[in-house]
């Protein structure tokens, strides 16, 4: 990521004190930050501001955070999104990640933790830009680290930044088995509070996108972790 260009952050929350606090802290770190208090306003702001990353509350007046994300994706943008939710429920976390979100944080939250997670998501989003072009291949699964293009049997797969970085980690270490702890440490890059089930969620999304209708390449090694490799014949 070009350090001379400020990160552009869009904060969407209907509680002005939260949105303003996050935006103020981001500006203190040298980022550009704007806020929106509703789903409709968020879509307008996103089109005008073209953010590098979005903090998106789930509970919004008008259209909710899930619908905002759906419309952002329908517009063709792959901007990373970190959800804020007042509900520490598995269903919310699953829904957020399934809909194309990259991370989530439960209210009340620490602004310092939120900023750490935003930086981690940005690193995952831009990690390939500083490396030379490289093509990873496992069976008929390919990943171009320069263009961030992933394909299975020649058919492109659209991945979120988090899905991409987890798959890249497994492909670069194939055929070794990676534990959940190793994946959390190398992909998320911060203490996830022991909630290793987030790894299972992202793995399940990757399987739906890559293994459906094909020979499985993403395997669970029970009691150990995960591996990307062709099945032994």
Search tags:
233 residues; alpha/beta; Rossmann fold; Arc Repressor Mutant, subunit A; 2 domains; 5-stranded parallel β-sheet; 4-stranded antiparallel β-sheet; 8 helices; 41% helix; elongated; phosphorelay response regulator activity; transcription
Beta fraction of the residues? 15-25%
Oligomer: single chain
Q: Report the major sheet.
A: 5 strands, parallel
Helix content range of the residues, please? 40-55%
Let me know the number of strands: 12
Please give the count of helices: 8
Number of domains: 2
CATH topology of the largest domain: Rossmann fold
* The CATH class of the largest domain: Alpha Beta
Distance between the termini: 42 Å
String of helices and strands: EHEHEHEHEHEEEEHEHHEE
Structural Rg: 18 Å
GO molecular function: phosphorelay response regulator activity; transcription cis-regulatory region binding
Pfam family, one: Response_reg
Modified residues (4-aspartylphosphate): 57
Organism: Amycolatopsis thailandensis
